[in-house]
Amino acid sequence: MTEISAALRTATGDLSSAGVPSPRADAEILLAHVLQTSRGDMVRMAVLGKPLSDEHGDRYARLICRRAAREPLQHLTGTAPFADLELLVGPGVFVPRPETETLVAMAATDLVGRSEPVVVDLCTGSGAIPLALKRQVPRATVIGVELSPQAHAWATRNATHTGLDVDLRLGDAGHAADELIGLVDVVTCNPPYVPNDAIPIDPEVAQYDPSMALYGGSADGLAIPLTMAARAAELLKPGGVLLMEHADVQRESLAAALSKTQKWVDLSDHDDLTGRPRVARAMRA
Ligand SMILES: C[S@@+](CC[C@H](N)C(=O)[O-])C[C@H]1O[C@@H](n2cnc3c(N)ncnc32)[C@H](O)[C@@H]1O
């Protein structure tokens, strides 16, 4: 038996040596997960000098070992926070990122004043964007399209888990939702956009996010995003809005490619909460 505070200190040191970016936070989240309590309660237990049972200690040590080997934190807890949801994640699905919450907030703003809006999310992964939007704008009809059967299964699980009524379809988003051509208010899309020869630095991304979720299909990473933008142009009604996430370096190139098609007006680009260029917004002409 060891004290919780001592277990936390050792785990933080191990994660720090392994190069995990936020070792103390991860150590706390994993211990709270083992103890089936909130992070705040676990920290209070540590401050009060409470002990960790051998059984919990062994489980915790195994999880810390896996995290030190750079298995994603969210795969170890089985969940990822996103907007005001707690989503289920694991092997076969892209872990939703906090920076994508910017796109969700922008989409909710673009739906203000639209009475029975239709939203289509292309490349839906875990269902993060359509589910978060449905939670924030219940009057919207929301459809999500995902090509990977594994990711689609996670999205379906998340719809059940959150109790949100979103139409989740399995298929190529580049040809999605023929019956909605010209009828959609907002298309959201966080497509794969990593340039084909750029291998992500973080092992959590390079080894655990599915490659189909990462690579944009060309040297500049924009082939799949532009296929999705072309489909968005078909789906949107005049005055409808496309919101597309992109890499830091794609702000100018994506805007130039969109503007070349002459299908869009009012193009703008928006930073995420860390101040990096992240979301292109364009209105259908
Ligand atoms: C970067 S991930 C984003 C997932 C989710 N939108 C999010 O923000 O967490 C891109 C997703 O697009 C999916 N995808 C790739 N090509 C696709 C296609 N042609 N049609 C539909 N989905 C596709 C991948 O499987 C992956 O789930």
Could you walk me through the main structural features you see in this protein, from its secondary elements to its overall organization?
The structure is a single chain. The protein folds into 2 domains: 2-69, Helicase, Ruva Protein, domain 3 (Orthogonal Bundle); 80-284, Vaccinia Virus protein VP39 (Rossmann fold, 3-Layer(aba) Sandwich), CATH 3.40.50. The protein is built from 12 helices and 11 strands. α8 (149-162) links the parallel β6 and β7 (167-170). The protein is α/β, with parallel strands linked by helices and 285 residues long. The radius of gyration is 21 Å and the shape is elongated. The mean pLDDT is 97. The longest helix is centred in the N-terminal third of the chain and has 15 residues, at 54-68. It has a 7-stranded mixed β-sheet with strand order 7-6-5-8-9-11-10, sandwiched between helices. Strands 1-2 form a two-stranded antiparallel ribbon. α1 packs parallel to α4 and α2 packs across α3. The structure holds S-adenosylmethionine. S-adenosylmethionine (SAM) binds at residues 94, 96, 100, 123-126, 128-129, 145-148, 151, 172-174, 190-192, 212-213, 224.
